[in-house]
Amino acid sequence: LLGASTETGIFHCTCGGEPVSWHAFAERIVERAGLSVPVESCTTDEFPRPAKRPAYSALENRHLHDTIGNSMRDWKEALDSFMEHYLEQEKNV
């Protein structure tokens, strides 16, 4: 991206695919890790953070895509690839 364009502004750089909740994201991690543990869902209000957070928010890559004409791969594909690599490394520790 650097040097590829004269565009300025904020470029969100996040995987593609449908927006996903933190709960669904955690469930996929647990599943790909081969664990059999429950992942409990909670609301934003039930999980207080120092900064106030909206009940729903999602990033999109439109500015990035419109500038360089490319999209990042689906989050599921990226997570699965990461987990495969991570778990393989863990075997060798």
Automatic annotation (TrEMBL):
Domain RmlD-like substrate binding residues, every copy: 6-86
Cited InterPro entries: NAD(P)-bd_dom_sf, RmlD-like-bd
Database matches in SUPFAM superfamilies: NAD(P)-binding Rossmann-fold domains
Domain of life of the source: Bacteria
Gene3D superfamilies registered for this protein in UniProt: UDP-galactose 4-epimerase, domain 1 (3.90.25.10)
Entry's transmembrane regions: none
Pfam families the record matches: RmlD_sub_bind (PF04321)
Protein's recorded name: dTDP-4-dehydrorhamnose reductase
Organism, scientific name: Sphaerochaeta halotolerans
